[in-house]
């Protein structure tokens, strides 16, 4: 882990435009968006709708003209924050038509048995879609705006944050009123922030790598697994997951510690790992394809990045450039999309992009740091805790309490993926409060049970011995009433 700051020492609410990271007063409507990936393309669309003249730059060639697209292909899951952002630019229904709803997780045990764990109440779903498919839709929609100019094969070399100038390899430089950098986890713009300003930054590589596999449709062109689930093979320190595609194939990803990849260097090692841990997946993926995709693989790393502020002068970091997160909550794209939505709301409120930038870091960095932490937590949940009967009990209890009191008790997953009533930070705080309530309930339930046993014993003695313990019986009854479950947790419940 590389860390240049302790996040315990940084209060995002105290970031102020009057600090060394002050926003410049550069006017004008010209905006450079660096990166035509998911977040960059969406941001270009929102800015264009506001009337800004946008130049959208991408180092790759046009992915719509490529047979095979380089880069990651882990499927994306779209949830409420992403859907609201897509609705803002008018392509929500188009994207949903290219996606598959997922209503929960399907857990695969080593013996081949399976069981579902619903995400929430009936009909609540997230949506699986190909990264490439949604990126193509967003680029096409951005290009449909007359005030958006597309520039493919433009490799960023440097961003001059003092002069609002961007330099591209072999092309030259150009000055803009505002620069929005969506250039990914290894952002060159963020690196420039580190060199030129007082800037807080940390990154952490988790002790896990991933490789991608796939399951083809069966001979009839149908899916080999129940379609409307995220399929998980949780195995403690590692896991295999599968997300469906519209052609009935599955994008599979093996996540595991570096140690397991040493076993994937020989044919015997690869088949040994799958036979021991994922026996039912061998028939689904097919042995030959497993060997083709896994043999000799070193795996790809995953990094979590936090930084602040996200805006310096008139240059802004957005999406993974500002907050790369591990993929285990499926919320990275949704979080990046919500970045653009927050910015758009601030423009609407302040009637100026420049003024909106002055408020953006205060509005956003604490929330995205919380989401980075939640994504880390969900890795442990998916690979290990999801197998526990206590996890399933907690899910059932959360859903029951949510059904009884939908406004007061909102499960963590629901608050993040199906609602936008709370920010990510508020979702995390709400989860901590719920843990305290259930911990208190458990503690006082045990106390209640012990006291009930004591009272029963006293009652038995009293009736058997002719009433000698009458006073003790009354004491026990009062004790239960005053310190039992309902009395004990009363102080934790909301008014």
Model description:
The structure is a single chain. The protein is α+β, with helices and mostly antiparallel strands and 495 residues long. The protein is 43% helix and 20% strand. The chain is built from 17 helices and 20 strands. It has helices at 38-49, 80-88, 92-96, 131-143, 188-196, 258-261, 267-277, 279-285, 287-294, 320-323, 332-350, 353-383, 389-404, 412-417, 424-464, 470-483, 485-489; strands spanning 2-3, 30-34, 53-57, 76-78, 100-102, 104-108, 114-118, 126-129, 148-151, 156-160, 165-168, 172-175, 178-181, 200-215, 230-234, 239-244, 250-256, 300-308, 311-312, 315-317. The strands form four sheets. Strands 1, 6, 7, 14, 15, 16, 17 and 18 form an eight-stranded mixed beta sheet that branches. A six-stranded mixed beta sheet has the order 9-3-2-13-20-19, with helices on both faces. A three-stranded antiparallel beta sheet has the order 4-8-5. The chain is globular and about 60 Å long. It starts with a strand and ends in a 6-residue tail after the last helix.
């Amino acid at each position: 882990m590389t860390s240049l700051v302790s996040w315990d020492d940084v209060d995002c609410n105290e970031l102020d435009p009057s600090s060394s990271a002050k926003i410049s007063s550069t006017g004008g409507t010209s905006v450079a968006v660096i990166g035509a990936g998911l977040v960059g393309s969406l941001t270009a669309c929102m800015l264009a709708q506001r009337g800004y003249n946008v130049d959208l730059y991408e180092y790759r060639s046009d992915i719509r003209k490529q047979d095979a697209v380089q880069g990651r292909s882990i499927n994306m899951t779209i949830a409420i924050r992403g859907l609201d952002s897509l609705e803002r630019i008018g392509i929500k229904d188009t994207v949903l038509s290219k996606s598959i709803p997922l209503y929960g997780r399907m857990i695969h045990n080593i013996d081949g048995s399976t069981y579902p764990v619903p995400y929430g109440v009936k009909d609540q779903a997230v949506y699986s879609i190909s990264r490439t498919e949604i990126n193509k839709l967003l680029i096409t929609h951005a290009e449909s705006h007359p005030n958006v100019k597309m520039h493919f094969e433009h490799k960023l070399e440097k961003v001059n944050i003092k002069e609002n100038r961007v330099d591209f390899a072999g092309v030259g430089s150009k000055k803009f009123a505002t620069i929005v950098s969506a250039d990914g986890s290894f952002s060159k713009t963020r690196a420039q922030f580190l060199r030129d300003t007082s800037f807080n930054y940390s990154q952490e590589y988790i002790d896990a790598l991933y490789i991608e596999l796939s399951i083809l449709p069966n001979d009839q062109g149908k899916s080999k697994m129940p379609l409307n689930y995220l399929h998980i093979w949780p195995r403690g320190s590692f896991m295999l997951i599968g997300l469906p595609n519209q052609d009935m194939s599955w994008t599979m990803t093996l996540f595991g510690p570096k140690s397991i990849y040493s076993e994937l260097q020989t044919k015997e090692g690869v088949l040994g790992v799958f036979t021991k841990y994922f026996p039912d997946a061998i028939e689904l993926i097919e042995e030959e394809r497993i060997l083709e995709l896994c043999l000799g693989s070193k795996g790809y790393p995953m990094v979590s990045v936090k930084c602040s502020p996200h805006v310096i002068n008139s240059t802004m970091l957005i999406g993974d450039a500002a907050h790369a997160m591990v993929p285990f909550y499926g919320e990275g794209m949704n979080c990046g999309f919500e970045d653009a939505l927050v910015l758009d709301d601030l423009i609407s409120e302040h009637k100026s992009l420049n003024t909106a930038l002055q408020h953006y870091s205060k509005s956003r960095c604490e929330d995205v740091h919380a989401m980075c932490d939640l994504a880390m937590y969900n890795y442990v949940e998916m690979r290990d805790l999801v197998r526990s009967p206590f996890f399933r009990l907690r899910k059932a209890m959360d859903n029951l309490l949510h059904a009884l009191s939908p406004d007061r008790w909102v499960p963590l997953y629901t608050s993040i993926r199906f609602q936008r009533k709370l920010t990510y930070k508020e979702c995390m705080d709400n989860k901590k409060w719920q843990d305290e309530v259930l911990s208190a309930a458990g503690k006082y339930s045990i106390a209640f049970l012990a006291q009930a046993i004591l009272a029963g014993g006293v009652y038995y003695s009293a009736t058997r011995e002719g009433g000698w313990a009458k006073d003790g019986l009354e004491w026990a009854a009062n004790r239960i009433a005053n310190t039992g479950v309902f009395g004990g947790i009363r102080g934790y419940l909301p008014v």
